Amino acid sequence: MPRPKKLAEDSIRATVRISEKDWETFKSQAEAMGLNRSDLIRQIAQGKIPLGQLPSQEKLLMGKS
């Protein structure tokens, strides 16, 4: 069953080039914040999450956020 669409009509599909390791790290950061990658990108873009608030890699590896 496909995921329901919840994006605004003015949304675009974008492509980024990133290493697989970095993409998985980004996924881990998003999950640590209770978000998926798209929602994390959206919230950063909207200024709801300043980049300085992202959990550090050390905290992620230790299971802390």
Please describe the biggest sheet, giving its number of strands, its sense, and whether it closes into a barrel: none
Helix content: 40-55%
User: How would the global form be characterised?
Assistant: globular
Q: What's the total count of β strands?
A: 0
Strand content: under 5%
Summarize the structure.
This protein is an all-alpha fold and 65 residues long. It has helices at 20-32, 37-45, 57-61. The longest helix has 13 residues, at 20-32.
Write the layout of secondary structure elements.
Elements: H1 20-32, H2 37-45, H3 57-61
Q: What this model shows, in words?
A:
There is one protein chain. With 65 residues, the chain is mainly alpha-helical. It is built from 3 helices and no strands. It has helices spanning 20-32, 37-45, 57-61. It is globular, with a radius of gyration of 13 Å. 2% of the residues are buried.
